[in-house]
Description:
This protein is of the alpha/beta class and 340 residues long. It has helices at residues 13-19, 63-73, 89-93, 101-105, 138-150, 204-209, 212-220, 259-262, 273-281, 305-339; strands at residues 39-41, 56-60, 83-85, 109-116, 119-126, 154-163, 173-175, 178-182, 196-198, 237-238, 241-245, 266-270, 289-297.
Amino acid sequence: MTTRGSAAASHDLLLDRIMFEPPETEFHEPPWPSGLAPQPVHAALQADGSLPAADAVLITWTAAEKEALAYVLTPGVAADDWTQYRHDWTKYVGQLTDRSPAREAQCLGEFYMATIGRLRVCCLHSQLHPATDAATLPTAQLAAQAAAETGAKLIVTTGTAGGAGSGTVLGDVNVATAAASLFTTRLAGHPWSKETWPTTPLTAGQSSMLSMDVLEPLFAANSGRLPAQWAPRAPQVWYGDTVSTDFFAFEDETDHYGLAAYKPNIRDVEMDDAAVAYGLSAMAEPPPLAVARNASDPIMPGASEDDAKQAEEIYQQYGLYTTWNSAIASWALIAGLAED
Length: 340
């Protein structure tokens, strides 16, 4: 178990990142464009335990990311008040390991509904993770299940990531053009272990809502919380590759993990997006996919144990604040559909 503002007791950098719960803080509501402010909507599970119908599903991953999504998209409804989701739990339980957060939580995740304009949004926090669960990749199954149950026209995977690519700083957002897997440890050797899935091209409305003319005042409402050392300028949006690994990897100036060599257009490294892309690709009629990731830890000088610990400390201190930016970018991806 974790306590608010502490890391998991595992002393495992990967699990610490997933389980860390930041302390509560003050969030200033951004100046949303007229008619597009997120509004929380209570909705129960369907009679069979499946998710409610939605136009879009936002999937996030860590406890801190769930907190950030609640601040931005379900204002007034705390993350702790989201509803547990367990549909077809028995199908998943055999795919969990002793390191699976879902085993401790006894659920697939938690959700809450919101509206953005005329669109209904299912905000879903996944307790499944490729790097902790079995090599059957239940995260991919969950993505397809959520898409099918909701009938969503858009799936967005969003949250924290290690920053990558020249010029990326803490708080920047990558709206990925592709999701690539680089599973080289416990998930190596599968057809999907080293593959790239393009995300869906942005619509005109999405591109418009992602412009800095729209996003800059929304980001600025809660600016000033990041250190100048790691965030020397205001956050901006990049359009590059997201790379998913099956262990806690991060970009550094020596490219120790070969991330930039694998994907020269890399802008972030995380552990989930490729599994979502793979799960959706197996559907007969997959919905569009988008990725919005924030740089919650910067490009590090090296890849030593001390560098890894510092990256984790930066995440725990500032990850909630940086994730507000990717939650806002996720809002823009959906608000753009409402404007098309």
